[in-house]
Specification:
Layout (H helix, E strand, L loop, with lengths): L2 H11 L8 H18 L1 H7 L3 H7 L1 H17 L1
């Protein structure tokens, strides 16, 4: 099985663990990004379990996530 096939299969099956909804994602995204920048991805995921899985599977929320990182990087 190729990497592309594995990625597609994972997209169809969804995450193995918990995943937040888009509503919860937008509610917690600011805090999640701040934690990622200050303490790393592990601390952010511990604070908002399931966020990373959601961001991997939801293009709209992933775009917002990337935009917040870009905004904060530009301000720094």
């Amino acid at each position: 099985m190729t990497d592309d096939s594995r990625r597609r299969l994972a997209g169809v099956l969804g995450p193995a663990g918990p995943e937040v909804t888009c509503e919860a994602c937008f509610e917690h995204l600011d805090r999640y990004v701040e934690l990622e920048r200050a303490q790393g991805a592990t601390a952010a995921e511990a604070a908002v379990p399931g966020m990373q899985a959601h961001l991997e599977g939801c293009p709209a929320c992933a775009e917002e996530h990337e935009g917040l990182h870009a905004l904060l990087a530009a301000e720094a």
